[in-house]
C-alpha cells in the first residue's frame, strides 16, 4: 500500500490547532493559580514550560496531538511508518519545530515524503490516515 503524506496546509492547520490548545491550557492554569495566594513565580514558570514542552512530545509518543487527530494525520518513524515515534525522537523533533517555526516547513516540497526539517532531524515522517 502506498503511503499518503499531508500537504503544507494540513500540517499548518494541525499546528495551529495545537497552538490554540496550548494557549488555552496556559490561560486555564493561570486562572487556577490565581485562586491561590502567593504562588511562587518558579511554580508558574515550571508549569507553563512543562505545558509547552510536554504537550507535543508526550502525545506524539502515545498517539497524536489534538491537531493531528482533527486533521487525520500522524507522526511516524521514517524507517517504519507503521510505528509511532519514541520519546527520544519526539524530544529531538519538537525543539527544532518550535525554534525554526515556519522555516522548518521549507523542505516539505523538496522531498517525496514531504518531510520538514524537524522530521529530517528526528527520523520521522507525517502520514495521512
List the helices and strands and how they pair.
Layout: H1 8-34, H2 41-62, H3 66-71, E1 73-77, H4 87-100, H5 117-122, E2 124-128
Antiparallel strand pairs: 1-2
Describe the structure.
- With 129 residues, this protein is mainly α.
- It has one domain.
- Helices cover 58% and strands 8% of the residues.
- It has a two-stranded antiparallel ribbon.
- The longest helix has 27 residues, at 8-34.
Strand order across the biggest sheet? 1-2
Count structural domains: 1
Instruction: Please identify the structural class as seen in this structure.
Output: mainly alpha
End-to-end distance: 12 Å
Total of helices: 5
Principal-axes shape call: elongated
| Major sheet description | 2 strands, antiparallel
Count of β-strands: 2
Radius of gyration based on Cα positions: 16 Å
Reading the helices and strands in chain order gives: HHHEHHE
Please state roughly what percent of the residues sit in beta strands, choosing from under 5%, 5-15%, 15-25%, 25-35%, 35-45% or over 45%: 5-15%
Helix content: 55-70%
Average pLDDT confidence is 92
Low-pLDDT regions: none
InterPro entries: Pra-immunoreactive, RDD
Organism: Pedobacter yonginense
Pfam family, one: RDD
Keywords: Cell membrane, Membrane, Transmembrane, Transmembrane helix
Amino acid at each position: 500500500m502506498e503511503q499518503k503524506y499531508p500537504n503544507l496546509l494540513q500540517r499548518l492547520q494541525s499546528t495551529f490547532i495545537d497552538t490554540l490548545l496550548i494557549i488555552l491550557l496556559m490561560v486555564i492554569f493561570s486562572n487556577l493559580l490565581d485562586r491561590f495566594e502567593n504562588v511562587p513565580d518558579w511554580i508558574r514558570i515550571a508549569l507553563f514550560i512543562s505545558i509547552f514542552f510536554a504537550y507535543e512530545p508526550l502525545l506524539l509518543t502515545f498517539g497524536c496531538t489534538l491537531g493531528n487527530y482533527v486533521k487525520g494525520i500522524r507522526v511516524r518513524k521514517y524507517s517504519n511508518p507503521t510505528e509511532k515515534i519514541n520519546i527520544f525522537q519526539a524530544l529531538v523533533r519538537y525543539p527544532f519545530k518550535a525554534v525554526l517555526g515556519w522555516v522548518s516547513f521549507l523542505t516539505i516540497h523538496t522531498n517525496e515524503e514531504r518531510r520538514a526539517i524537524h522530521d529530517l532531524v528526528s527520523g520521522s515522517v507525517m502520514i495521512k490516515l
